[in-house]
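--- STAGE predict ---
source: upstream dedup step, 1 unique chain passed
mode: sequence only
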Amino acid sequence: MKHCSLQSSFSNIVPFRYFIPVYCFHKCLVTQPRHRIGVAIGDQILDLSVIKSLFRGPVLSNHQDVFDQPTLNAFMGLGYEAWRETRRSLQQLLSANETTLRDDVSLRSRAFFHQSSAMMHLPAEIGDYTDFYSSRDHATNVGIMFRGKENALMPNWLRLPVGYHGRASSIVVSGTPIRRPSGQMRPDQSKPPVFGQSKQLDIELEMAFFVGGGNRLGEPIPIERAHQHIFGMVLMNDWSARDIQAWEYVPLGPFLGKNFGTTISPWVVPMEALLPFADIDLVYMYWTMKQQLSHHTVNGCNVRPGDLLASGTISGPDPDSFGSMLELSWKGSKTVDLGGGETRTFLKDGDEVTLTGYCEGNGYRVGFGPCAGTILPAL
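--- STAGE serialize ---
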C-alpha cells in the first residue's frame, strides 16, 4: 500500500477540541457501545456525558442533556452563548486549582480515558453540504489549465464566493475507504465520450466549518453576526474524479465527479477556541468563512445546525503549496515524486492519502486530527 501525505499548517493555539467517539475500551466490549461527545485533553478524552451536571451556567443548566446526544447537532443548535459558556466551564474545571475533577478519583476514572481506546465517527448529522472555490491561486491554476492564462478567472470570481451544493450523504469520517468511481468522460476530444472507471482520481486539501445556530427561511445572516453561526472547523479532502468532472461540469458544475466521497477529520475545533487567533493562517484564501456564510444566506436560504461549508482547494502560488494532484502534476503533464522511486500523476488503487493540520503555540502543537482515506478499486 502506498502512502501519500500532505500537510496544512496553522499558527494558532487550540485549548480543546470537540469530537464524537464510540468508547471501545475494554468496558464497552461487554456492554453496549454508544456514540458520545468528548473533549481531547492531551492524549486523554473527557466524556462530557459523565460530567454534564457540572455545567451550571445560565444556558447549559437547562440543557445538560445535549451532552447525552450521539452527535453535536443539539449542542451546536444552542448557539453562540452556549458555546462560550461551555468553554469557560471547561477551562475552570480543568484548571490546576479546581478540585472537582482533580480530587474525585471515582469521577475521574469514569470521565477520562485514553484516545487510543476510542473509535471516531462523524461529529454531526450533516443535513446539507456546500463547497466553495475560495483560493485565488487554485482557481487561477485551474483556469489556466482549462481556459488559458488570459481567461483564468471567470468574471464573477472576484465579486462573490463561488460555490456548489454537494452531497451530504457521501461525507465520511477519516479512515473510511474510498471506492474509485466510474462514469462518463471524454479523454479524446476527437471521439465520442466513453464510460469507465476514473483514471484521474485526485485529492483536494480543504478546511470546512460546521454551522451552529441557523437562520429562518427568508432571513439572511448579516456578515456582522456571521461569527455567531460558525461553530468550528475540520480538515477535509474533497476527492475528485477529474476526467468525469471535466466532461460533466458544463453548464451546471460538479456532479458525479465529486459526490462519490468526501472525507473529514473527526475533530471539530470550535471557533470560540480560535477567536483569540481569528486570522487562521490560510493565507491563500481570498474569501473568508464569514463572507461565505453571509453570501450563502443573502437570498434568504436557511442553514441549520450541522450543515457543512467547505473552503475549496487551498493552494498557493508555487508547487510546494499546491493542494491537489491536478496542480502538482499540472493536469497530468508531469509526475510527482513521492520518494523511494514512487511517482504519481493521479492516485492509484491502494494509495492512502492523509491530510494533517495543526495549531501551533509557544513550544507546542495541537492537531486537528488526521483526514485519511485509502483508494479501493472500482466495482
